[in-house]
Amino acid sequence: MANLACIGEPISWLRLERYALAGGDTTIREHVDACAACRHCLDEIQRDVVALPVLAVPAKRRRWWRFAVPSFGVLAAAALILLLLLRPRAPHGENVVTVKGVGKVIVDVVRERAGTIRDDVRTFKPGDRFKVIVTCAPTHEVTLDVAVQETGATQPDRPLAKALLVCGNRIAVPGAFSLTGDKSHRVCVRISDQATACLTLAPE
User: Fold this and answer.
1) Bridge partners (DSSP) listed for residue 98
2) Nearest CA to 176 among 105, 128, 121?
3) What integer pLDDT is reported at residue 77 of this predicted model?
4) Which residues pair with 141 in a beta bridge?
5) Are strands 185-191 and 195-203 parallel, antiparallel or unpaired?
6) What is the DSSP letter of 198?
7) Residue-wise over 71-97: b if at least 16 C-beta within 10 A, else e?
8) Is the pLDDT of residue 6 over 50?
9) What is the structure's pLDDT at 63?
10) CA-CA distance, 167 to 160, in Å (whole number)?
11) Which residue has the higher pLDDT, 58 or 41?
12) CATH class, 96-203 region
């Protein structure tokens, strides 16, 4: 599958997951009919019996005072932009690496607990399920090898099969895994055999 490349702009893994669950989007259907790379990703999703549900992002509520006092909103936005420009830049975390020929790659996780899905956590309890999410510049392909190692263990586990994916925004690596025990776990992703991005999940 190493020669597969998208015929245009790749469809993100999360959009393909939504399509696999609900269907109905003729634009995606027409694209995957003509694109072997995206069709391969859709086939992976449909075969992925342990995939987490699609992450639903709630709609943001509009506040009445944004319309009543528009000048305040403009001033607040300008102040925020100035603050972001002037503040010191934080160093990249361990979950962000640069890969030759691909650029910046960001590795993250999504956690499902009793039907609730969150993408802003670094903790676990028995029964939680995790899915690895990767963001990188579209039109590139990367191989991803996920390893999970409990603190004190001599060898990592590899709960997910090595995957070949087309880059995009927050692409889900096929499969999901759970963690046990009362020690932290390091989740590391080896990207195209060039660089490794990691993050730590701690027990609650």
Assistant:
1) 104
2) 128
3) 53
4) 166
5) antiparallel
6) E
7) eeeeeeeeeeeeeeeeeeeeeeeebeb
8) yes
9) 46
10) 18
11) 41
12) mainly beta
Q: Using alpha carbons, list the distances in angstroms from residue 50 to 87, 105, 125, 131.
A: 42, 25, 18, 10
Q: Is the pLDDT of residue 124 over 50?
A: yes
What does the pLDDT read at residue 16?
75
Please write down the HEC assignment for all residues of 88-151.
Answer: CCCCCCCCEEEECCCEEEEEEEEEEECCEEECCCCEECCCCEEEEEEECCCCCEEEEEEEEEEC
- Distance from C-alpha of 185 to C-alpha of 201, rounded to nearest angstrom: 5
Query: Which residue type is seen at 104?
Result: K
Tokens encoding 108: 């993250």
* Structure token digits, residue 178: 């759970």
Residue with tokens 């963001």: 135
Q: What share of the chain is helix, strand, coil (3-state, %, to 5)?
A: 25, 30, 45
Average pLDDT of the segment spanning 78-86: 48
Q: Of 20-34, 84-98, 146-160, which gets the smallest average pLDDT?
A: 84-98
Give mean pLDDT, residues 76-88: 49
Domain boundary assignment for the chain: 96-203
Whether 99 has a pLDDT exceeding 90, the answer reads yes
